[in-house]
Amino acid sequence: MVRLVVSLAGQRAVNGYRIPLRAGQTHGSRCIMKSNSSHDQPPRCPWAKTDLSIAYHDAEWGVPLHDDQKLFEFIVLDGAQAGLSWETILQRRASYRRAFAQFDPQKVARFNTHDFHRLLQDAGIIRNRLKIQSAIGNAAAFLKVQEQFNSFDNYLWRFVNGQPIVRHRRHHRDLPPRSRESDALSRDLKSRGFTFVGTTICYAFMQAAGLVNDHLVRCFRHTQVQHP
Q: For the domain that residue 201 is a member of, what is the CATH number?
């Protein structure tokens, strides 16, 4: 169960996010909110079901992202997700931030053997040797991209010509696992030394960072992320 803390009036905070309270729900409530199941909740994408996933969906998913450190965070987290649910990663996000120096790529690129073994012993993250090695190696590759393009942001957004791709999907089953753009991004990242960047991972990364707006048309965030 995620930890809740008091936030603003009419809202509560979940792991750093603010989400609205349902009618009759108190700040101290520890129940799991179900999206799209109550008339007093706005319509959401059906995968947003728990407090944590609802907060992430409402605050971050699909919002165009241009901050390099946050982009590096999503590269690490999406790579860590491979074979797992995104909810599993969200539950460990605070631990990942602590373990990986708040996702500062310069610091992560300097991680040594001691840091690698420290991470292998960290129960707060996914203790997979290949994924940990990938995160450290990707930090070094990330810095090279920054040096060549002045920012990772400049490099990344070229793959969508600088503008989010806005989909108009009506059903969750219509969301593709990959796209032409994610194929191209995957190939290019691999050529630059990145790992755990297959096209499916890249598509999830593009959704998270707002290069693709895959909110369903009935979701209240579909229009909001287009016109913040």
A: 1.10.340.30
